[in-house]
Write a structure and sequence with these properties.
The protein is mainly alpha-helical and 105 residues long.
């Protein structure tokens, strides 16, 4: 499970954002993601899962898109959707990876 502490380690640029705000954005990100698509949510103390990683990048994207994330400086001008922030771009790449289906080499 993606926690506020894990989020702060991965994204120290959000250290000035309150624990409550980060927790709320992680919760909002969880609501937009399905374990049926992303795989199971991780367990605290166990290795991070793709669900956890996606959750943290989506939460970072949401924070950077608001006044709370102004210090992140990761908003890309004239971009739309997930590409508005570097975090959204990473989320998009992860999302493509988990939704692209099986491949035969």
């Amino acid at each position: 499970m993606a926690t506020v502490d894990m989020f702060r380690v991965q994204f120290p640029e959000f250290n000035s954002v309150s624990t409550t705000q980060i927790g709320m954005m992680l919760g909002a990100a969880r609501l937009e993601m399905s374990p049926l698509v992303w795989g199971p949510e991780g367990v605290v103390g166990q290795p991070m899962t793709k669900f956890d990683q996606g959750c943290m990048y989506l939460a970072a994207h949401k924070l950077a898109s608001t006044a709370m994330g102004q210090n992140a400086k990761a908003v890309i001008k004239n971009a739309v959707g997930y590409h508005r922030t570097t975090y959204g771009g990473e989320f998009y790449l992860l999302m493509r990876g988990v939704t692209s289906g099986f491949r035969v080499a």
